[in-house]
Amino acid sequence: MSRKFIDCREYPSESNCTVAISADTEDELLSAAAQHAVQVHGHQDGPELRAQLRQIIKTGAPAA
Q1: Residue 16: which region, alpha, beta or left (left: phi > 0; alpha: psi -120 to 50)?
Q2: What is the largest CA-CA distance in the chain?
Q3: Contacts for 19 with CB less than 8 Å, ≥ 6 apart
Q4: How confident is the model at residue 15 (pLDDT cuts 50, 70, 90)?
Q5: pLDDT at residue number 7
Q6: What are the distances in angstroms from CA 33 to CA 20, 46, 53?
Q7: Of 2, 8, 31, 56, whose CB neighbour count within 10 A is largest?
Q8: Which three-class secondary structure state does DSSP give residue 7?
Q9: Can you point out the beta strands (E) in the chain?
Q10: Contact (CB, 8 A) for 49 and 37
Q11: Minimal CA–CA distance to 63: which of 15, 24, 5, 16?
């Protein structure tokens, strides 16, 4: 099973976030990424946010 990840560095924001989140399953990653998006970036959690996050999930590991 390949790890999944989302790397904020690939999506510049005003906060210049450098967090990369990874997990073994897409569902686990999506949950953690949604929490991060709400708490750090001020997004509203919901189906639209989760759909956007699902589109940027990559397989493997973020660059060092």
Answers
A1: left
A2: 34
A3: 7, 8, 36, 40
A4: confident
A5: 95
A6: 9, 12, 7
A7: 8
A8: strand
A9: 4-7, 20-23, 58-59
A10: yes
A11: 5
